[in-house]
Design brief:
alpha/beta; 8-stranded mixed sheet; 3-stranded antiparallel sheet; 11 strands; 32% helix; globular; binds 5-O-phosphono-beta-D-ribofuranosylamine
């Protein structure tokens, strides 16, 4: 295994963190989650990590004068735990270029839309308002462009409800919690890589919208 130490950054509920913990526990995902880092002392995800016996660290951004100062401390916490892969799982802060450059190629995020559609916030509402028939989530490498790094894995569902919260929950349950462990597993096993702003699986260029995931026929 080429990259076994995983650090997860969270800010809130941590259902994606839970999906990673469960996948690891059930042998569906390789690697070890060695640290959960959080900017919000109240985040429920911290309890999920503690319950799973994973070390946690809270570094509150309110204690820092600038984003760069904060990100420098984050970088050293992640270097201290020798993270091979940094996984953003509902981490609600914009990362400085300093941070992104430091971890480029080993920094991934999950975004609740069919990227390149709807980067940024309120993705579910935007998809409903646009009368889209489909919506979903995308795992991607993080680059300096917000939600603009190369997609890795993307899952979609039909929009059959017009309630933003219900749709968000379906996207999490049916897509996010399935595709994120898969993408992390690929990385840890050395199958996923990032070169010159592109993502590769098993040495092959991943298409611009990511590998398409379906529940009936999930990629392995
Ligand atoms: C997820 O919907 C993810 O797509 C977005 O933030 C949310 C985090 O949820 N980046 P959780 O904390 O994992 O429950």
């Amino acid at each position: 295994m080429s990259a076994s130490r995983i650090a997860v950054l969270i800010s809130g509920s941590g259902t994606n963190l839970q999906a990673l913990i469960d996948a690891r526990g059930e042998g569906r995902m390789a690697g070890d989650i060695v640290l959960v880092l959080c900017n919000n002392p109240e985040a429920f995800g911290l309890q999920r990590a503690a319950y799973a016996g994973i070390p946690t660290r809270v570094i509150n951004h309110r204690d820092f004068a600038s984003r760069e100062d904060y990100d420098r401390v984050l970088i050293s916490a992640l270097e201290d735990c020798q993270a091979d892969l940094v996984v953003l799982a509902g981490y609600m802060r914009i990362l400085s270029p300093l941070f992104v450059r430091h971890f480029e190629g080993r920094l991934i995020n999950i975004h609740p839309s069919l990227l390149p559609k709807y980067p940024g916030l309120h993705t579910h509402q935007r998809a409903i308002e646009a009368d889209d028939r489909e919506h979903g989530a995308t795992v991607h490498f993080v680059t300096e462009e917000l939600d603009g790094g190369p997609p890795i894995l993307q899952g979609r569902l039909r929009i059959d409800d017009s309630d933003e919260q219900q749709l968000a929950q379906r996207v999490q349950r049916e897509i996010e919690h399935r595709i994120y462990p898969q993408a992390v597993d690929w990385f840890v096993r050395g199958r996923l890589s990032f070169r010159e702003q592109h993502a590769y699986l098993d040495g092959e260029l991943i298409p611009a919208t990511g590998i398409q995931w379906s529940n009936e026929n999930p990629p392995t």
